[in-house]
Amino acid sequence: MSQSLVMALAQQNFLVGDIAGNAQRIVELSRQAQQQGADLIVFSELALTGYPPEDLLLRPSLQTRVEQGLQQIAAASQDIAIVLGFPWRENGQLFNCAGFWHGGECLGRYAKQCLPSYQVFDEHRYFSVGDQPCVIDWRGHKLALTVCEDIWHKQPVAQAAAAGADLVLNINASPFHQGKHSERVNLLASHARRHNLSLLYVNQVGGQDELVFDGASFAISATGEPVLQLPAYAEALGLVRWQQGQLSALTASAEAHTDTLGSLYQALVCGVRDYVEKNRFPGVLLGLSGGIDSALTLAIAVDALGAERVKAVMMPFAYTSDISKADAAEQASIMGVEYSSISIEPMYNAFMQQLAGEFAGLPVDTTEQNLQARCRGVLLMALSNKSGAMVLTTSNKSESAVGYSTLYGDMAGGYCALKDVYKTQVFALAAYRNGLSPVIPQRVMERPPSAELAPDQKDEDNLPPYTVLDAILARYIEQDLSADAIIADGFAAEDVLRVIRLVDINEYKRRQAPIGVRVSQRGFGRDRRYPVVNGWKAGI
Ligand SMILES: Nc1ncnc2c1ncn2[C@@H]1O[C@H](COP(=O)(O)OP(=O)(O)OC[C@H]2O[C@@H]([n+]3cccc(C(=O)O)c3)[C@H](O)[C@@H]2O)[C@@H](O)[C@H]1O
Ligand SMILES: Nc1ncnc2c1ncn2[C@@H]1O[C@H](COP(=O)(O)OP(=O)(O)OP(=O)(O)O)[C@@H](O)[C@H]1O
Ligand SMILES: NC(=O)CC[C@H](N)C(=O)O
User: Fold this and answer.
1) C-alpha span between 491 and 483 (Å, rounded)
2) Tens of pLDDT, residues 56-86
3) Domain locations in the chain?
4) Ligand 1 pocket: which of 395, 509, 510, 512 to mutate (most atoms <8 Å of CB)?
5) 448, 438 contact by CB (below 8 A)
6) Closest ligand 2 atom, CA of 395?
7) How far is CA 401 from the centre of its chain?
8) CATH assignment, 5-258
């Protein structure tokens, strides 16, 4: 006769590489869950190391550190069962494992069978493939362990069902991209219905370099109905009861994690917050130009860290309009951030004076524009060095795509909130954020974008309108379409060929850009690895 079980879903923000700290956190939370009546607690994939640990997995002391952490966890499993993810070396091979501890003993260990090595994932670089299901017979229940990517294929769940499982514990490190949450829920519901199984989906939460894990863990009944939904972008401990083959929620569900601009905005906030917090920066600073990119970046920074940890700097030059200065000052005041204005004119003039001999007889070109951006970069980095605050860069995905930014100028900095956000989405996100409370002056939202690096300059003088540019970029970057296919979609050949050429020749620039939040399935980080030197010809 099976007993009723209370199970805790532990959605946590672990620090990659801090094995001792993560083990301690796992022990504390297990104790806390036990006090709340849980018989079993489930942590996420590679909870012990944090995900993705990347080449830390190759460090010689990995196994020793993992064993030390697991000893503490085993000791904490006397009165509560603990399920968690950890790397495990056996016979010279490393596996991405899920383990089940109770009474101080490991009652089962499962090695992940489906290793993702696409998009940002690179698990075949580190892990060997498992080939066995793991179904643990505990207190009259048959509990199967699976790890993240396993659930995106039919075989591991089918194997577990064939081995008699009635409940699948799926531990995850599943990063956010737009639309991902509904994909996960639909996927698990289809496994549930196909095999008449209930499933727990436990995801980690928080930012890690370019990745943002949204959490949003859930439990699903054998009929494919969601039973419990944990919040997105927050740590949480949810409880469910498992009794006579039925799951029921013991804690309140969060609102369903919908795939709107709101979840995109929260992903950006979460990415910035965790990058700053986990690197222990006291705060951030950025150049505030009166344009939309720096305005949105400022709003994200303040939502992530609080106004007292954010500084904005206006650095005017001869081409900076009065309305840019006024709008920047107004936004800084609305948001309550420290604000200062430093003219770049004296340093620009000093550079030009020193270069006058070298430049004699040569026409004015982008060199002079880049020098303005570089004066700003130097000032921001000096302020960063002095205060310890990190510089946020403001380039969006459209600009990074076509190389519309200056090396060692506006590209100087540590982290980029909008790195994976097209310019058209920048406008939509700014409007979304202002809908919550007005933080970006209306004029900033309405002015045509301009780099203000030359008299009366507008971005769209040099580029097709952003709606057209972004549509071409999405086809080329996200969908991998050829120039011919994009032209066949109705775009002007001249625009398509020019944009593709710009994307191709600016790989070197993107390679030197700071990392930033990834929110699509094809960001400019680990998702897209093109050779800088290459002879590929655009066309078919
Ligand atoms: N393949 C390669 N591998 C390595 N390095 C390479 C390279 N090709 C050029 N380079 C180097 O890169 C230099 C060119 O890059 P860089 O100095 O950045 O300059 P560049 O790309 O020529 O100019 C920057 C462009 O971005 C625009 N911009 C700047 C700032 C802000 C904004 C905005 O709206 O936000 C727009 C600006 O109007 C201009 O069109 C070359 O002089 C060379 O030193
Ligand atoms: N006058 C300025 N004062 C402070 N920072 C500036 C100034 N001009 C440019 N910057 C910085 O350089 C970045 C590049 O901005 P630029 O104005 O060239 O074009 P942009 O990409 O349209 O950005 P934005 O929409 O923020 O103006 C800005 O986002 C800002 O961080
Ligand atoms: N860690 C993993 O196995 C992640 C892969 C999986 N498809 C996801 O992103 O949800």
Assistant:
1) 10
2) 999 999 999 999 999 999 999 999 999 999 9
3) 5-258, 262-511
4) 509
5) no
6) 21
7) 19
8) 3.60.110.10
